[in-house]
Description:
By secondary structure, the protein is α+β, with helices and mostly antiparallel strands. Helix content is 25%, strand content 32%.
Amino acid sequence: MYTDPIADMLNRVRTAQAVGKKIIEVPFSETKYSIAKCLENEGFWGKVEKKKKEKGNFFTISLKYDEKGIPVVTELKRVSSPGQRIYKKCKELRSVKGGRGVFVISTPDGVMTNNEARKKSLGGEVLCEVW
């Protein structure tokens, strides 16, 4: 059992990118899957797919690299944690790295990026920062 499953997912991605893996498997949860789909839609990751095994459900993430083999995602940072939740109002959501990155936010309308949340005038818990 993990104390922070979202941080575990981000660590799996970091580790896989360090060794140049193309696809990773992550145990399924709705929140983690929603985060992965947000980052897929933003172009940070390739395809994200749900799968089933005898042991349980999981999903796969296809990691993206440029022509030189350098990962598209430079940094993954967990902002809010089980011990310290970080909440931001709509007006407090700034751009990340001059617009090159995103915050992933859990809002009343679901998990979305800071850009989508600003358009919908929503705030929420800042889950992670990606650039």
